[in-house]
Amino acid sequence: MIINSKILRFFRVKYADTYHIIMLLSCIMVVVLILPKEKRFKYEYEKGKVWMHSDLVSPFNFAIEKTPKEITADKKDAIDAVLPVYKFADRITAIEQEAFKIDFDTKWKAKFQGNNSRSKNFKAGIDLIDEFYKKGIIELNNHYQKKKNADYYLTIVQNNVATNVNSSALYTPSRALDYAKAKLNKANDDIEQGFLLDIIQDHVQPNVIFDENLTQKLERESEESVSLYKGMVQKGELIVAKNDVVTDDVYKKIESLRKEYEQTGLFSGKREIVALGQVIVVGISLSLLIIFLYLFRKDIYNDYRQLSLILIIVTGMLVALSWAIKIELPSIYYIPYCIVPIIIRLLFDARLALNIHILVVLIAGFFVPNGFEFTFFQITAGMTAIYSIQNLLRRSQYLVSAFLILLTYLVCFAGVSFIHEGNFSKVEWIHVAPFVLSVLLSLLAYPMIYLFEKLFGVTSDITLMELSNTNNPLLRELAFKAPGTFQHSMQVANLAEAAIYKIGGNALLVRTGALYHDIGKMRAPNYFIENQKKTGNPHDELTYEESARIIIRHVTDGVEIAQKNRIPDAVIDFIRTHHGNTRVDYFYQSFLKNFPDRIFDEQVFRYPGPIPFSKETGVLMLADSVEAASRTLKDPDARSIDILVEKIINYKLEQQQLINTDITLKDIETIKQIFKQMLMSIYHVRVEYQSAGIKLPEKEALES
Asked: Which residue ranges run through the membrane (predicted)?
């Protein structure tokens, strides 16, 4: 594993340009392979708007497709046209007739023994039963009734013969009893009306039974028989003329033509040519991204892990887009496009996030319906996402950011809808639902960031925010073992953060770096003046070389402690660079003064470096030196602070400690003004000494 890693690193260094090209081509190939290869309809159009292109003439015969609403309505009508199917259940008729006879005989003997009117009563009852079952008794189905107890048409199947009738032509159990009661009321005195009604009531059961399976089968067949088309457009027929309004009928014709064009490929053309076009479009977009990184973010360009991460994020979003198109997602806006700028912003910076987001959206715009609207929605929402987390200080900003993104979508949707419809009442607000889901899915960016940090070794603002919490175990240990150093680090953090916020940079990164830049002093806190008590200085018992080594060692000790506690490299860089390659001048000048003729190695008194290489690390070096030096002022006032800041910063410039940073002269002047204003509140006294024509504090002597 180690050998393979070394071999890979060797090829990365020796063939760096080739490696970048391979990564770029691999990304282009993956994106092109997953994108749909259907040819794109070249016209942009909207219902109710003017057709801005030349006259559109049908190049071939094609059918006009119905809209989804029309198809749904037609299917519903087709289903409603199917009459429910019922069948006569002869078995029920025979059973109930026989049961009536048995029940009548039993109850008559028990109640009317010796009554000579039995035959008349039996005939009256059985005639009614026969009449009911011959005509048919039905239980009305609520599904087919327009209102309660309403009749409806149905199909009765008897002896394989189907007859359409209205349910009013049949008896229901209640109608049968009402009829029996009315007829018996007209009978002579020999008829026992109450007796017969009680028995008839027990034997009136539906014998016209609903056939659910057959009915559903007929409904499915009717639904499937609904045509998806309505009418034809003939070859050579004018569909819409230039400057004509795209009416509803014209819109349906254009949509049908577009689908024929994209799905069946009736126009001349090959998939290979479409793929070539995609290679060109995607290749140009991703090449511009690589060029941007080469020109403006060489640190990312030369870091293969970070470069791979960016390409994976870009590719992943385009894969999600292609997947949504292939499965015909109801709305393309369900895809959380804002997840890309959020991740890139929190892992890198706002400028890179904006560039990548625009490139991804521009590529996607070629493959989605209404590409201009899509691009407008996504770019505005992405910019809001980036701006809303520009300075991440609290976790609550995640939810605030999500709310602002959703608000941007809603406002943009309202604006576009007003342009399209020209009427408040016609805005279909139901279409904002995909935007809501998209914003909720965008919150997945935050757990994904943690995963990317672990896999690719990058540091997000979320991690920096956690590290900058003074309750962090390492900072608490620093406060306990070296309280003076901890207070110094807090002051440096305030100075550096204010300066970088003004000149532009990652304020959270510089604050975190400032809090940890001196953690190496924990191993020997008493050798640094801010932690010493008034009685005794341990340097008095050491040679100048030994004192210099102890002072310099706090940098390497700090790096070691940070690495042991898994502090990110982005923060460790502040520990390495906050003294650059300057000398520990106090002990160096003291050695020269006391041993002018002795030969020695100057590197003993010099920090190992490297010098600062970014705005953030450069500002920290200046803040560290200025804060330490300011403590020498016994009676600080505006003039003394002004002179001190000017001398300290100019000294660092003379020592060429900022030549690798992109801090401009204008930035230097801004930094000076901020430091002067903030130092007016500092009144700590430090031992003064002269070095290289500059008055520096003893702390500065022990560190620099």
From this structure: 18-35, 273-295, 307-325, 332-348, 354-377, 398-420, 432-452
